Amino acid sequence: MKVRVGFIGGGLISDAHIRSLQKDERVEVAGLADINQAARDRVAKKFGLKKTVSNYKKLLSDPHIDLVYICTPHYLHNSITLETLRAGKHVICEKPMAMNAKEADEMIKESERTGKRLFVAENHRFISENRKAKELIEENEIGRPFLCLSCFIGKEIKRMNNIKDWKGTKDKSGGGVIIDNGPHLIDALCFFFGRVESVNAYGGRLAINAKNKEEDTALISFQFKTGIMANLALTFAAKYNNFPRNYCGAGIRYDIYGTKGSLHIISDKEYPLTLVQRKKCQRFAMDDIYPDFPIEMDSHFIDCLLRDKEPLVTPEDGREVMRIIDACYESIKEGRKVRV
Length: 340
What we know:
- By secondary structure, the protein is of the alpha/beta class.
- It has 2 domains: 3-123 and 296-312, NAD(P)-binding Rossmann-like Domain (Rossmann fold, 3-Layer(aba) Sandwich); 124-293 and 322-339, Dihydrodipicolinate Reductase, domain 2 (2-Layer Sandwich).
- It is built from 12 helices and 15 strands.
- β9 and β10 form a beta hairpin.
- The longest helix is centred in the C-terminal third of the chain and has 20 residues, at 315-334.
- It is globular.
- The termini are far apart.
């Protein structure tokens, strides 16, 4: 019997997840809820969905729906997740998991109370070059890591300058670029290096004109419990950059320095990973990394649901990212280093 999935939210992010799940023969995408008729019509036509509704509660009351994928603005993640779990359905929630760590805690506790699975769609642990880099670190190929420089260089100027768009607003997004695309890179840094001890963050609306929006640009310094230091630069306001043109959406980079070598990850579909050692510089082509990668995150979650397995990224990982983001915003507000 197939896992029947209903989607709440018909924006562009839902397209990627519907497309992924429709490839999985164990899954039936059984419905979509969105308050916007045009969004419902667009998704239904594009993916051949037979059932679309304006009120998501109709999906929750549908006995034929097993799992709900939440692709809404951030401020709805917590409340709809809690409702869905209480309706007896499993949940996959888009990142960020919630607006803050307190909300994330509530979601985890409700999942435990109801016995229904909760997954967080944080996909950067599934990216081939990130997993290969993690493997090389664990195999001591670069010795002891001590420094990482990383960035997310994005162009979201149109939506950030639109005062009617929820992106970047405090009430519906929870903040700007830190809470929006920051979770991807923060989670990847935790994947590489473990728990964060403290953060020192700076951020502001430096290039966006809409006054109802939060930070378009930020710089975060991390101190990890292992002693590793990392810097992360984030922006939604870069009109121009020199990242490979074949990457969709943004430029992402990690430069990881160790006592015996270094690793360099860049959003390039041809050669995304380079290992530098004393007498060797090895560039990894995508096909060289893992022949069976990338793992499809959504199918991985279905596998975990059907086989009762632990996912590569857990709800607790999602909560840890929210704790770090909470600390970042506290650091910006108070102008000091904050312990996580």
